[in-house]
Structures are given as structure tokens and as C-alpha cells.
Write a structure and sequence with these properties.
Layout lengths: L6 H8 L2 E3 L5 E3 L6 E8 L6 E8 L16 E7 L2 E8 L4 E3 L5 E3 L2 E4 L9 E3 L3 H7 L5 H12 L6 E3 L5
Parallel strand pairs: 2-11
Antiparallel strand pairs: 1-3, 3-4, 4-5, 5-6, 6-9, 7-8, 9-10
């Protein structure tokens, strides 16, 4: 995967990103909502990034028990340029530019030629490097945070997606 990521994108992904402002604690988004956390490059504070977290509107239902199926997206962007995105959704379907169809949770990384239109299955070698080996949203987020070098002081209060 590293061979198909441009040097510039690799640099944007790996630079140390800190939360802009004094707020370091955020509640995870409620179903159908999104939060955007402004970030900046520690070496070049004028270089701005955004961490977006989105919980799908049809995430979980509370009937007699909790249906744990979730639809959750996390993404880092430089300005409006997407760098890395993880889509956690057992029912997701994505078609890569080469025609390959992915079913289930997957990871998008900005690559040469295709930008973020190309994805890897979450359980693939590339997906595991970015998202770890779990599909538990808080655990995936920690792996994603580590891969994208996002502020370790940032705290997300996770919910059950309801």
C-alpha cells in the first residue's frame, strides 16, 4: 500500500496532529449526527486538518435487546482533501475503480491515480494496518488515531450507537 500512496499524502497522514483549541473531550456523535474536530500539524500550525466522526442514522435499535449492528464512519482530511476513511458497516458495498466489489466494512486511503475512491476490506493486510483487528468502534478509532498520528490527549466518550 505504501508504494501507491504519494509522498505528500504519506507526510500529511504521518505528521503529528493536535486538537485546535482547548477542548479535548467530545461525545461520540449520536445516530444521524457527525462531529468535526479541528486539528493542526505540530510542525506547521498553519496546516489544518479535520477529524470527522459520523454515526449512521439506522445504527442500533432497542427492542427487547440491543441490535449491535452499527454504521460508523471516521475520516481525516487536510482542508477538504480526504486522506483516510474507515466505513464500518456489515451491509456496506463499495466498487473500486478497477471494478472489484467490496462487501462489508472497509478502509479508504488516498492513493495515486484514484484518490480516496479506492478501498481495502477492513480485514485485509492494508485494513489491519490502519484499523487494527477489531470491528469494535472505539478500538478501531484507537488504531485509526495511531495510524493518522492524531493527538493522544483527544478523548471520545463512546456510546452504544443509540
Amino acid at each position: 500500500m505504501d508504494a501507491i500512496i504519494s509522498d505528500q499524502v504519506r507526510q500529511w497522514i504521518s505528521c503529528e496532529k493536535y486538537v485546535e483549541g482547548e477542548r479535548l473531550h467530545f461525545d461520540a456523535p449520536k445516530p444521524g449526527c457527525r462531529i468535526d474536530v479541528p486539528l493542526f500539524d505540530a510542525q506547521s500550525p498553519s496546516d489544518k486538518f479535520t477529524l470527522s466522526l459520523y454515526e449512521g442514522a439506522r445504527s442500533s435499535r432497542l427492542l427487547l435487546s440491543l441490535d449491535a449492528s452499527r454504521k460508523f464512519t471516521m475520516q481525516t482530511r487536510r482542508s477538504s482533501h480526504p486522506l483516510v476513511r474507515i466505513d464500518i458497516d456489515d451491509n456496506a458495498r463499495h466498487t473500486n475503480p478497477d471494478g472489484a466489489i467490496l462487501c462489508g466494512s472497509h478502509v479508504h486511503v488516498c492513493v495515486e491515480k484514484y484518490g480516496c475512491a479506492f478501498a481495502f476490506p477492513l480485514a485485509s493486510d492494508e485494513g489491519i494496518i490502519i484499523a487494527g483487528t477489531s470491528e469494535d468502534v472505539p478500538e478501531v478509532f484507537e488504531s485509526f488515531r495511531h495510524y493518522c498520528n492524531i493527538d493522544k490527549e483527544l478523548a471520545i466518550k463512546w456510546s452504544l450507537g443509540i
